[in-house]
TrEMBL record:
It comes from the Eukaryota. The keyword Transport does not apply. This is Pentatricopeptide repeat-containing protein At2g17033. The gene is LOC110753785. Gene3D superfamilies: 3.30.1370.110, Tetratricopeptide repeat domain. The keyword Repeat applies. Pfam families: PPR. InterPro entries: PPR_rpt, Smr_dom, Smr_dom_sf, TPR-like_helical_dom_sf. Residues 363-447 form the Smr domain. It comes from Prunus avium.
Length: 454
């Protein structure tokens, strides 16, 4: 049954009413209701989603659960949960059909502020689900609210292109792309043209259509719209993700010829592309190119490279047995994997995440994937041992490893990095223990760590 959407006044007062709360097909089979919810939402949001999953076949109960949840939730918790339902990475896609009635209830809250970006994400989801009438109603409502404000209309369609491309929704993407394409040719605003250019190129690449994005760049160049590093990066990664490395490198060459310097961000995209297709030898060559250009490695460089190391990633599936030193690790790596690790450990990334002060020596593993945290930890053992043995530095009163408590993990509260550190500390009989005041850290006295490592 269709939902009826009614526009209710100006910006900030938009209200949606619906004649039926649940827009799913009750005959469609649902996933097992016993499956656990694994998402980076609040604990309150997780409990709510668990109840929804358990009562997904009962429209009346589901409506009551939504109303009760919104009554007892803060603005941030409610919007966080809605964002999860709208996310292409949701682990409960059958609950995403509740996004529209959930959003409609949110619009009735006293704290609600109309947000075109949120609307764009909802429109994309509805379009992907085949609810084109509902999606069009929301688009019409938004256009009516924004009136003749070209900038805001353009940004809304940019957000639509982004949301549709993330969901790989061709129907919705093509419609929004067509609108922005017209703006590229007809708008007199440089700002509007630049934003439309960024979004169309990025969206085409996200939709696995990098050659069209490449052609659009050339078309706009002829019309006097100069591509920025953002557009070039999008096309580089667009070709790279598809394994079209010859085309990818041609775009890199274009950037260099036009005086746009290759930076670490672009290099990480190239490395990630090679890694996704197991082109380890090409990754070694590119890391050496980065060094020749004096481009600094970053945590993302480590992530891109080590996520592609089959031996390391396989070993980390069972961290109880991983090598506990660089020397041991080199003994089990061969060929290109060994060369990749060699290039990484010669970089300065460890220096950027390590602090040595009289009160505290600290290693911060935030932002690192499991392979990166593992290799950095091995490097840190050696660096700390050298510092202690040199006698040149004041011994820190305390040593801390920050690994996080899992707030951003796929399973909230379960940090894979923390689990790895814990296993290695136990296996190596380390004095470092989980901090009682901060469960995302391991701590020990500086003297105890020196005695352990040296």
């Amino acid at each position: 049954m269709m939902l009826s959407l009614n526009q209710m006044g100006g910006i900030g007062s938009g209200q949606l009413s619906f004649s039926m709360a649940l827009p799913w097909n009750p005959l469609r089979p649902l996933p097992p209701l016993t499956s656990s919810i694994q998402c980076a939402v609040t604990k309150q949001g997780q409990r709510f989603l668990t109840k929804l999953a358990a009562n997904a076949r009962d429209a009346k109960v589901t409506n009551k659960l939504i109303a009760k949840f919104l009554t007892s939730s803060t603005k941030s918790i409610a919007l966080n949960t809605l964002s999860y339902l709208l996310s292409p990475d949701t682990t409960l896609p059958h609950l995403s059909s509740l996004a529209l009635p959930f959003y409609s209830k949110i619009t009735e809250a006293s704290w609600f502020e109309w947000n075109p970006k949120l609307v764009a994400a909802l429109v994309a989801l509805l379009d992907k689900q085949g609810q084109h009438n509902e999606a069009e109603a929301l688009i019409s409502e938004t256009i009516s609210k924004l009136g003749s404000r070209e900038r805001e209309l353009a940004l809304f369609h940019c957000q639509l292109v982004e949301s549709h491309s993330k969901l790989s929704s061709k129907h919705g993407f093509d419609s929004s792309y067509s609108y922005l394409y017209q703006l590229l040719h007809n708008s007199s605003s440089v700002y509007v043209k630049n934003r439309a250019f960024e979004s169309t190129v990025s969206g085409l690449c996200e939709m696995d259509r990098p050659s069209e994005a490449d052609n659009l760049i050339e078309e706009m160049r002829v019309k006097g719209l100069k591509p920025s590093v953002f557009e070039f990066r999008s096309v580089v990664y667009g070709y790279g993700r598809l394994g079209l490395f010859e085309d990818m490198l041609k775009v890199v060459e274009q950037m260099e010829n036009q005086g746009i310097a290759i930076d670490t961000i672009c290099s990480n995209m190239v490395l990630s592309s090679y890694g996704a297709h197991s082109e380890l030898a090409a990754m070694v060559v590119w890391l050496r190119k980065m060094k020749s250009l004096s481009l600094p490695f970053s945590i993302r460089t480590y992530n891109s490279v080590l996520n592609s190391s089959p031996t390391i990633m396989s070993m980390l599936q069972e961290p109880k047995d991983v090598p506990c030193s660089i020397e041991e690790l080199n003994g089990v790596l061969n060929g290109d994997e060994a060369l990749l690790v060699k290039e990484l450990v010669e970089s300065t990334v460890l220096d950027e995440v390590m602090v040595w002060e009289p009160l505290e020596a600290k290693l911060d593993l935030h932002g690192m994937h499991l392979g990166s945290a593992y290799l950095i930890l091995l490097e840190w053992f050696d660096a700390m041992r050298c510092r202690f043995n040199s006698g040149k530095d004041v011994m820190p009163a305390e040593v801390v490893i920050i690994c996080g408590s899992g707030k951003h993990s796929s399973v909230r509260g379960e940090s894979p990095v923390k689990g790895l550190v814990k296993q290695m500390m136990l296996r190596m009989e380390s004095p470092m223990r989980i901090d009682r005041k901060n469960v995302g850290c391991f701590v020990a006295k500086g003297r105890a760590v020196k005695d352990w490592l040296c």
